[in-house]
Q: What sequence folds into this?
């Protein structure tokens, strides 16, 4: 009997707050927290609330800077959003943070009736949108946009990176009605500084042109779209990228102008294929009578596995390699 | 009146003149509610009659407001969490001069500012949209925090029903109010022991209600909610004992559905009470007779 032992292969683990930044990628720490502090310095009406997730939604940065304007509501999401509505009724501008799953699933009635119906300036900040944690369905808000798109008055923002978040926060505070921000937290990639780009609430932006394919993307999938566009260039495929950080109201005009060509149209989103960016684009295309095929790259309509994020992004088609393979197969 | 909290009541008893003024307001509120009920031929008249003394104590005695300027920044906030009690709230808003009495007959009609379920976007003086039960106290906590953060001395009074004690959000808010030491917050619970599917104790047992609120850290008083003197004394106790030490207060009000109209008090209890066309005048006559009889007694 052999006495030698073989080393076990190192297992990939599923950290709650897994970073989707690539190794060596330029990042910024807690862009939301710092942007909120900057906005609050300019606007004394801004307050911050959380439901026992301050440290995990970057709200702790604000709490430290403005302890008197920070309100810990406990692990009570219905109270969090009801109270945020009440604060807005007194003239304050609340930013209320929790995980997206709890905002969308657990506190929907409170967001809908206490905040959206009276059209209050309450800014909902949801951590772990889409597939940004390996914890499984309890924490993966894969259908948050599908849930929220049906809510009248609510503006939905799906930022790509630290640049988007930094520029979006003051615009969310300044816009009158309620907003929902799909928060990227921790060390967030900095991507859009390489482009001639400014975040404008309600606007889509063409980040790069391309003759063969047009990507329409939001959230962290815009980062992947840009990486995939570079990779596809090596296959002599020329890809345009349109970034649509505001999902609702949707900038159909800019997107339809880009789609009304012979190029292969692909949507990319960190969200289920049901009810998110793909269906938003598809609806705009059909309404305009474009008669154009649109290929979705999105999460499948199923409860996702637990695991390490890179494993899961590869498994469910969000990785750059999977995007490239999908486009090449579509092009035949 | 039973006083369950550890603090002793220290306030002096309300004067007979003050009590009589509120009783008169409650009588007019009940009268308005019958007017609105007759337009619809049915509705939440029973609840409005039961809660009329609570509304009267709030609007005619407690609330700081300007009738001509319902959004006046210096107002106290009264939140109707129980949206279907709007009929009673509209009657109180008419008594307060915020809604014209003549407008009450539009209650529940197309394009009326007075919809069946109360909504802030429709009605002057209506602070929130109730109806989805268990919301009011969460909003009230935020308002009380927001007012305090802006150095306002205004108070927030949230009206809720015993049925709303079924909702977990009510208890999230109860914990939050105590944690944040909201002495500027008062909850009034209408305990009429009736909810949509029947008697409260058959739907979901909420008793012991007093002990629940006390254990959540609230200054808790349980009173006969149709006894104006007891209601006023409860408010006076709050001002004397709880508000100064940053303790949220609840007044648990046992009320009688249909109170003031014997025909309805004795009718089989129903969430949505049916009243025949020929009965409205009888209701009004009974209401007036009861009020005048008590006044002369």
A:
């Amino acid at each position: 009997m052999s006495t030698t032992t073989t080393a076990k292969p190192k297992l990939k683990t599923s950290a709650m707050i897994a970073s989707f930044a690539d190794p060596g990628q330029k990042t910024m720490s807690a862009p939301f927290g710092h942007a909120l502090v900057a906005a609050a310095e300019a606007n004394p009406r801004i307050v911050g609330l959380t439901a026992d997730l301050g440290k995990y939604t970057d709200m702790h940065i604000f709490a430290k800077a403005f302890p008197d304007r920070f309100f810990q509501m406990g692990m009570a999401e219905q109270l969090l959003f009801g109270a945020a509505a009440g604060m807005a009724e007194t003239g304050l501008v609340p930013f209320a943070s929790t995980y997206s799953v709890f905002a969308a699933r657990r506190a929907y009635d409170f967001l809908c009736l206490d905040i959206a119906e009276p059209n209050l300036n309450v800014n909902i900040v949801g951590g772990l949108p889409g597939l940004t944690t390996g914890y499984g369905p309890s924490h993966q808000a894969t259908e948050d946009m599908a849930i929220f798109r049906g809510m009248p008055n609510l503006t939905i923002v799906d930022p790509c990176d630290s640049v988007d978040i930094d520029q979006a926060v003051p615009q969310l505070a300044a816009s009158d009605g309620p907003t929902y921000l799909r928060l990227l937290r921790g060390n967030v990639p900095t991507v859009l500084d390489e482009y001639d780009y400014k975040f404008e609430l309600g606007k889509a932006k063409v980040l790069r042109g391309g003759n063969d394919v047009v990507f329409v993307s939001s959230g962290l999938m815009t980062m992947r779209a840009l990486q995939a566009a570079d990779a596809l260039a090596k296959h002599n495929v020329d890809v345009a990228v349109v970034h649509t950080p505001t999902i609702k109201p949707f900038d159909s005009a800019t997107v339809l102008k880009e789609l009304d060509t012979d190029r292969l149209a692909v949507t990319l989103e960190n969200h289920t294929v049901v009810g998110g960016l793909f269906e938003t684009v598809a609806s705009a295309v059909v309404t305009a009578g474009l008669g154009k095929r649109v290929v979705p790259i999105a999460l499948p309509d199923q409860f996702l596995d637990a695991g390490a994020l890179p494993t899961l992004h590869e498994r469910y088609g969000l990785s750059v390699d999977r995007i490239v393979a999908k486009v090449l197969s579509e092009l035949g | 009146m039973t006083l369950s909290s550890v603090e002793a009541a220290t306030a002096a008893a309300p004067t007979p003149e003050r009590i009589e003024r509120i009783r008169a307001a409650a009588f007019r509120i009940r009268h308005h509610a019958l007017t609105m009920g007759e337009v619809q031929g049915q509705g939440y008249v029973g609840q409005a009659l039961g809660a009329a003394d609570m509304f009267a104590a709030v609007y005619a005695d407690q609330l700081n407001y300007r009738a001509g300027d319902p959004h006046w920044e210096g107002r106290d906030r009264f939140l109707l969490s129980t949206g279907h009690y709007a009929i009673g709230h509209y009657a109180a808003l008419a008594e307060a001069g915020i809604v014209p009495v003549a407008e009450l007959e539009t209650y529940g009609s197309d394009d009326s500012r007075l919809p069946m379920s109360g909504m802030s976007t429709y009605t002057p003086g209506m602070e929130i949209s109730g109806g989805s039960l268990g919301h009011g106290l969460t909003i009230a906590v935020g308002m009380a925090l927001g007012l305090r953060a802006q150095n306002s001395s205004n108070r927030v009074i949230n009206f809720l029903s015993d049925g709303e004690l079924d909702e977990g959000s009510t208890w999230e808010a109860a914990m939050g109010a105590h944690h944040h030491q909201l002495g500027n917050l008062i909850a009034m619970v209408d305990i009429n022991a009736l909810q949509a599917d029947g008697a409260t104790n058959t739907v979901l047992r909420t008793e012991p209600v007093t002990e629940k609120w006390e254990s959540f850290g609230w200054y808790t008083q349980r009173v006969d909610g149709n006894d104006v003197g007891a209601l006023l004394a409860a408010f006076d106790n709050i001002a004397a004992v709880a508000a100064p030490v940053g303790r949220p207060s609840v007044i648990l009000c046992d009320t009688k559905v249909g109170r003031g109209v014997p025909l309805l008090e004795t009718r089989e209890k129903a969430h949505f009470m049916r009243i025949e066309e020929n009965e409205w005048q009888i209701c009004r006559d009974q209401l007036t007779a009861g009020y005048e009889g008590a006044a002369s007694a």
Q: What stands out?
A: The first strand of chain A starts at residue 27 and ends at 29.
